[in-house]
Amino acid sequence: MARSEATDVDALGEIMLIQGTMQRQFLRVLLRRVVSDVPAFNAEMFLAELDLLKESLESGGETSALHKFALKEWERLSEMALDAIASTRTKTEAH
User: Fold this and answer.
1) Could you tell me which residues come within 8 angstroms of residue 83 by beta carbon, excluding any fewer than 6 positions away?
2) How does pLDDT run across 4-22, given as a tens digit for each residue?
3) Tell me: the pLDDT tens digits for 76-95?
4) How far apart are CA 80 and CA 86, in angstroms?
5) Is the dihedral of CA 67, 73, 78, 79 positive or negative?
6) How remote is the C-alpha of 72 from its chain's centroid?
7) What does each C-alpha distance from 54 to 14, 31, 43, 60, 64 come to in angstroms?
8) Which of 84, 80, 60, 85 is nearest to 70 (CA)?
């Protein structure tokens, strides 16, 4: 691989990392607002649906590196959702 190609790959990797971080931050803020501002939001149902989607991904029998990456990313997003809901509930219950 030529030097300029390696630099391009490094730059693309850094851009993707920044983009992924920004998207997670955005989703975390959005979820916190939904949980706190929408009285009818059913957090348990939301988390159950996330689990169903994860099970669907797992049941595909796929073992490629890309599929494993997707599962790991889904776990991160699910954990983020759980943390956002838990932190919102703690603040709401304290009032």
Assistant:
1) 28
2) 677 888 888 899 999 989 9
3) 888 888 988 888 876 545 54
4) 10
5) positive
6) 10
7) 27, 19, 17, 10, 16
8) 60
